Amino acid sequence: MADRKREDIGPILRQIAKMVRESKDPRATALSELKDAEGGNPFRILIGTILSQRTRDERTTLATERLFSRFKSPQDLADADEEVVRDLIRPAGFYNMKAKSIIKVAKQLVDEFGGEVPSDAEALMSLPSVGPKTANCVLVYGFDKPAIPVDTHVHRIANRLGLVETRMPEETEAKLVERVPKRYWLELNELFVRFGQTTCKPIGPKCGECTLRARCKYYREVVRPKQVALARSR
């Protein structure tokens, strides 16, 4: 049974990839752009991921560009003045809290890891403001190591498509790890996030453009009944 379930994932990801390519907003995610711009520098991916928490992609990109124009390494950031950092990352949400956090992260990297970003999830999660999602983002975007970062897009889409039936992102990650063959882990977050930004939105999803709506629980239980009720009322 488990093996048969796994067979569905490849075609689903290919359909999502096709819809993302054909969308009117084909931009990559902020982390993917940061990876390309910084050559996959794990330190900058780590800091960029922390800055991205509860912040829109375009604001994250601006904040990281401003920060890294001034501070190039963990040692630079560890020695930084908090007020200067706060001003540089102001485009990001919760910049006061994040300024404190990223300086603490840099200091811990210098003191405990020789100025290097660790490449395993447990060590990453020993850093301030780093939970499972952030750790997995660093593994995927910074080290090209298979992992499944689960944000609101991944959690929502995985449940809508019936890949999982979960209430919390942590549960979603565990179920996807069981369900999705490891060869797809590196691409899953990028595809689901872009799909969630362009088509499978939290409010007003573009179900009419989605080639996966036949298997979508949200479409069957929310959108389609409304369409039927509207047609009957005419």
Report the CATH topology name.
Answer: Endonuclease III, domain 1
Architecture, CATH level 2? Orthogonal Bundle
SSE ordering: HHHHHHHHHHHHHH
Shape: elongated
The structural domain count equals 1
Under CATH at level 1, the class stands as Mainly Alpha
Strand content: under 5%
N→C terminal distance: 45 Å
- The stretches of 5 or more residues where confidence is low (pLDDT under 50) are none
Q: What value does the average pLDDT take?
A: 92
Sheet with the most strands, sense and barrel status: none
Kindly name the structural category.
mainly alpha
Number of helices: 14
* CATH H-tier superfamily: Hypothetical protein, domain 2
Count of extended strands: 0
Helicity, as a percent range: 55-70%
Task: Provide the descriptors you would attach to this structure in a database record.
single chain; mainly alpha; 234 residues; Endonuclease III, domain 1; elongated
Describe the structure.
The chain is mainly α and 234 residues long. It has a single domain (2-198), classed as Orthogonal Bundle (Endonuclease III, domain 1), CATH 1.10.340. It has helices spanning 2-6, 9-22, 30-38, 42-52, 57-70, 74-78, 82-88, 95-113, 121-124, 132-143, 152-160, 169-179, 185-198, 217-233. The protein is elongated. The mean pLDDT is 92.
